[in-house]
Amino acid sequence: MSAMATEHPGGVESIRYQANLVHRIVRTNVQGITHEESLLQPEPAGNCLNWVVGHLVWAYAGALPLVRQTPAVDRERLAQYARGGPPLTDASRAVKFDELLDAWDESSRRMDAGLADFPTDTLGQPAPGSPTGNPNETVGSLLATIMFHQAYHTGQTAVLRRLIGKPGAIK
């Protein structure tokens, strides 16, 4: 389904590169952000930085088994960060930002390890599911979709950093 993931040599390496890039960019964008700052809500609507980082970890918790890795955090512990959930306005429901960042680092490390040893011959096989409802989803197209998802929310971390009042981190 995905030409990038199934037809070109190094498809897994491209996905691995994207995973490492989004990890580094999130870490750059959250530098110097406190737990309290991570909970500041954008106006007029949207999700706070705590929710976005928690959502990235939540997404990897669902994706890591695809690359033969176990989640760094149980998805149930991250239920408040699930897709389609309400904005995180109650601070008591938020995981401490430092804990989320540790989970992000470990989840990213596990994704990298899984992709490093991932058998390319499985990219064209049917995926176990499809978040986009694609009846022809392959493992390769699912991995590409997961990386698009992670990159989309990584971009939000830059905007949320600026809304918190910090200077842009990517120079």
Which SSEs are present, and which pair or pack?
Elements: H1 3-6, H2 11-29, H3 35-38, H4 49-63, H5 97-116, H6 139-164
Helix pairs in contact: 2-5, 2-6, 4-5, 4-6
Descriptive report:
It is built from six helices and no strands. With 171 residues, the chain is mostly helical. The N and C termini lie far apart (36 Å).
Descriptive labels:
6 helices, single chain, 171 residues, disordered N terminus, mainly alpha
Give the distance, in angstroms, between the N- and C-terminal Cα atoms.
36 Å
Question: How many beta-strand runs?
Answer: 0
Listing every helix as H and every strand as E from the N terminus to the C terminus, the arrangement reads: HHHHHH
Average residue pLDDT: 92
| Largest sheet geometry | none
Q: What is the tally of helical segments? A: 6
Low-confidence stretches: 1-9
* % residues in beta strands: under 5%
Rounded to an integer in angstroms, the radius of gyration calculated over CA atoms is 16 Å
Helical amount: 40-55%
Report the principal-axis shape: globular
User: Structural class from helices and strands?
Assistant: mainly alpha
Summarize the structure.
The protein is mainly α and 171 residues long. The chain has helices at residues 3-6, 11-29, 35-38, 49-63, 97-116, 139-164.
